[in-house]
User: Which sequence fits this backbone?
C-alpha cells in the first residue's frame, strides 16, 4: 500500500514525499507513479536499516533496471547485491523529492547524500558515472589483481581496474600503455597475433560475393545497428521505446533472439511484454 509520509526520519528530520512499504508487492504502482519523473529516491533495507540514495531524470526507467534480475546480477555493487540477497519484499522505496525542470537532480541527491549518509552508496559524492569519485577502499578493491578462468581452460592474470579515463579524471596515476592494452584484450576475450591477422586478410582476398550474399550482409549490418522497438507492459500500460532489439532484450531480461522471435510472432514475452518495431 502506498502512503505519504508525515513523520521525519534520520538526524536531518527529512520527510520522504512517498513511501512504498513493499517494493515487491507494489512494483506495478511504483512504476506507474514514477513514469517520466525526475526524482531523488532511497532504498531502505527493512532487515538491517541500511540505505541507498540515487537520482534519475526518468525514475521509471531506472527502476525498471532495478527490477531486472539479470541487470542487478551483473552490477555487483552493494545495493544490487543486497536486493538479490534479501529480495524486494525486504526493501521499501522512498521518494525523497520530485525535481522540477530547473533543478539539477544531482545537486539535490548530494544534499540528501550529505544529510543521510547512505551505507550502500560506494561514492563519496553524488553523481553519474561521468566523474565518479570513489572511496579509497573501493579504488583498492577495483585495482586488486584476480585470476580469470577463460573458456579454453587457460588462466590469465590481469588487473581489474577502473577505465583509464575514469582513473585520470579521479586524479589517480595514469595506467601504463601495457595495462590499457591488457584491459582491451581482456574486454574482447580474444587475442590475435600478427600471423592471425595476416591469414585473415589473405583469406578474404579474391572472394566474390553474390547479390544474395551482399543482401544478407547488409541485412545483418542493419540488424546490428539496431531497429527501434516499442515495449508495452500489459500489466502497467507503460510504454518504453528502445533504439534496438538488444536494448529491449536487456530491459526485459531475455536474449536478443527471443525478442526478435516475439516481434515476428506478435506473442507476449513472459505473458507481459508486447514488442513491436517502430
Assistant:
Amino acid at each position: 500500500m502506498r502512503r505519504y509520509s508525515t513523520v521525519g526520519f534520520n538526524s536531518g528530520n527529512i520527510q520522504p514525499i512517498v513511501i512504498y512499504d513493499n517494493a515487491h508487492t507494489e512494483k506495478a504502482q511504483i512504476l506507474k507513479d514514477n513514469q517520466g519523473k525526475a526524482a531523488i529516491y532511497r532504498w531502505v533495507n527493512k532487515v538491517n536499516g541500511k540505505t541507498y540514495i540515487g537520482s534519475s531524470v526518468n525514475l521509471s526507467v531506472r527502476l525498471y533496471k532495478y527490477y531486472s534480475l539479470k541487470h542487478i546480477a551483473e552490477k555487483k555493487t552493494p545495493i544490487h547485491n543486497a536486493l538479490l540477497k534479501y529480495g524486494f519484499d525486504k526493501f521499501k522505496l522512498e521518494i525523497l523529492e520530485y525535481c522540477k525542470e530547473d533543478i539539477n537532480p544531482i545537486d539535490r541527491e548530494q544534499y540528501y547524500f550529505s544529510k543521510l549518509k547512505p551505507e550502500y552508496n560506494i561514492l563519496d559524492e553524488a553523481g553519474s558515472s561521468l566523474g565518479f569519485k570513489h572511496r579509497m577502499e573501493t579504488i583498492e578493491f577495483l585495482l586488486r589483481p584476480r585470476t580469470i578462468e577463460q573458456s579454453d581452460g587457460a588462466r590469465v592474470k590481469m588487473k581489474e581496474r577502473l577505465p583509464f579515463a575514469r582513473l585520470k579524471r579521479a586524479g589517480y596515476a595514469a595506467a601504463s600503455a601495457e595495462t590499457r592494452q591488457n584491459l582491451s584484450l581482456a574486454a574482447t576475450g580474444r587475442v590475435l597475433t600478427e600471423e592471425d591477422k595476416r591469414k585473415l586478410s589473405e583469406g578474404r582476398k579474391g572472394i566474390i560475393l553474390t547479390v544474395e550474399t551482399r543482401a544478407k550482409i547488409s541485412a545483418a549490418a542493419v540488424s546490428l545497428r539496431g531497429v527501434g522497438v516499442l515495449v508495452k507492459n500489459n500489466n502497467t500500460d507503460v510504454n518504453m521505446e528502445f533504439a534496438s532489439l538488444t536494448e529491449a532484450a536487456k530491459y526485459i531480461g531475455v536474449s536478443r533472439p527471443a525478442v526478435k522471435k516475439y516481434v515476428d510472432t506478435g506473442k507476449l514475452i513472459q505473458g507481459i511484454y508486447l514488442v513491436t518495431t517502430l
About this structure: The beta strands are 2-3, 18-20, 39-45, 51-56, 91-98, 145-149, 155-159, 229-233, 238-242, 273-277. Residues 5-11, 128-136, 146-175 have pLDDT under 50 and may be disordered. The CA atoms of residues 80 and 93 lie 14 Å apart.
